[in-house]
Amino acid sequence: MTDVFSPEKRSAVMRRVKSRDTAPELKVRKALTTLGARYRLHRRDLPGKPDIVLPGRRLAIFVHGCFWHGHDCPRGSRVPKANRDYWLAKVARNRARDEASRAALETAGWRVETLWECQIRDQAALSGRLSALLAERPLFRP
User: Does 55 fall in a domain?
Assistant: First the structure.
């Protein structure tokens, strides 16, 4: 199956896909601010550059898009018909990278939480989940 866009148009579409300051990430940040939490963004010194980091609580939060990281929801399990092998390999690489980042952070004593795009839509559930995360205390500080 050929692409419906020209190569120039496809390139422009893909350039617009952001990795920072996405709508789901902004929703999580707003909810955290409402709860009174202070956080840092995209810390380069941590494995995987977590989207949101709460250093005092030793908490790293990743906000994942369901499609890009292969969530098991309907949107995440959808595979494009065009260039199917490429997309399957790409999502598999993303999942492997995510798992390696999570393991490295946990080894370093961080709590790691992954929030999926589909879970962020329910604002009440998101606030409850973030409140519970903020109430927990880290086990140890290395």
Answer: yes
